[in-house]
From TrEMBL:
This is F-box/kelch-repeat protein SKIP4-like. It comes from Prunus avium. The lineage of its organism: Eukaryota, Viridiplantae, Streptophyta, Embryophyta, Tracheophyta. The keyword tRNA processing does not apply. InterPro entries: F-box-like_dom_sf, F-box_dom, Kelch-typ_b-propeller, Kelch_1, Kelch_FKB95. SMART domains: Kelch (SM00612).
Length: 358
């Protein structure tokens, strides 16, 4: 016998089941369960259904994992091969294999560029500016969304730049100094606000074009400039967010900043590669540089770059040779597995680390 109420109830239950992340569970409980799936399996989660894919790719998912300390940090390295083309690799530090994996799909227009910025905001990585032998400096910006595994063109810089500093401070990207086109101001910087998806141009005469390294420490941006050919002294400037101006950094603080640097818990570590690989630490209380130790040439293959995760930092050199250093146990240095290909890849720019969702 036809029973409209029963049929309608069955349809409503079917629609509810289709809309729910997990049948029979409220969405908050389902999210509680799914968000605990390791990041390496997120690609499989997106294959289950359109609803699951939308959730895994959402800002809600990213925010939930961050809030509950479920996010996982992966390291991305931008490299150049022997054909002089850019490529990039990813490393999951928590993987048992601990090997670098080639990531495909870089935008074709950037493959030959040099001097690009490489920075991360939220769950997105940005490739900024750059130039080439037959291409003047550009302000183009490309954005990679890790949850979608896709590149898109983003809002361009206010001015063309290459070989410039790039840092994140207070949830905004700073693109600072560098070389540009004839119309560019070398004593300038751009600030990207993700809320408005726009860049704001600023200028300060204390910024110099020749930038070699940069770090964020104590809520300020420090830039190491080219060494003076006359005095051989290291020159650096620091950005004060409260005033929005650049000032000369203290000479004693930058005296031994002669290599790639990372900041861990407010402490500055520098890898001096001028004679072997020597690790130095800036002691703020006594205002002096303390030698931590030398790394064996059998473990490192300079030139190297540094990237920090928690209380550890990773030293990445030629061929993506990688070692891990635990600052809580200065005697512990671990060799990580490397990916070896027919071409030896050299790190040519900053290696970024960030917490994003696959």
């Amino acid at each position: 016998m036809y029973q409209p109420g029963v049929v309608l109830e069955g349809i409503n239950q079917m629609e509810l089941s289709q809309q729910s992340l997990i049948s029979g569970f409220p969405d908050d409980i389902a999210l509680f369960c799914l968000a605990r799936v390791p990041r390496k399996y997120h690609t499989l989660l997106k294959c289950v259904s359109k609803r699951w894919r939308d959730v895994v790719c959402s800002e809600e998912w990213h925010s939930y994992r961050q809030k509950h300390k479920l996010d996982e940090t992966w390291i991305y390295a931008l490299c150049r091969d022997k054909l002089d083309q850019l490529c990039w690799y990813v490393l999951d530090p928590n993987s048992s294999r601990r090997s670098w994996k080639l990531v495909h799909g870089l935008p074709p227009r950037v493959l030959k560029r040099k001097g690009m910025g490489f920075e991360v905001l939220g769950k997105k990585v940005y490739l900024l500016g750059g130039c080439g032998w037959c291409e003047d400096a550009t302000g183009e910006v490309y954005c990679y969304d890790a949850s979608l595994n896709a590149w898109s063109e983003a809002s361009p810089l206010s001015t063309a730049r290459c070989y410039f500093a790039c840092e994140v401070l207070d949830g905004k990207i700073y693109s600072i100094g560098g070389l540009g086109s004839n119309s560019s101001d070398p004593h300038s910087w751009d600030i990207y606000d993700p809320c408005t998806n726009s860049w704001k141009f600023h200028s300060d005469p204390n910024i110099v074009p020749e930038i070699e390294d940069s770090v964020v420490m104590d809520g300020k941006i420090y830039i190491r400039c080219g060494t003076s050919a006359v005095t051989s002294h290291v020159y650096a400037v620091v950005y004060e967010p409260s005033s929005g101006t650049w000032q000369h950094a203290d000479a004693d603080m930058v005296a031994c900043w002669r290599g790639p640097a990372v900041v861990i818990d407010g402490t500055l570590y520098v890898l001096d590669q001028s004679s072997g690989t020597r690790l130095m630490m800036w002691q703020k209380e006594s205002r002096e540089w303390i030698p931590v130790g030398r790394l064996s040439s059998l473990l490192t293959r300079p030139p190297c770059q540094l990237v920090a995760i928690g209380k550890k930092f990773y030293v990445v050199g030629k061929g993506l040779s990688t070692i891990m250093f635990d600052v809580e146990n200065v005697s512990s240095v671990y060799m990580l597995g490397c990916i070896w290909t027919s071409h030896e890849h050299e790190i040519i720019h900053k290696i970024c680390w960030f917490t994003i969702l696959d």
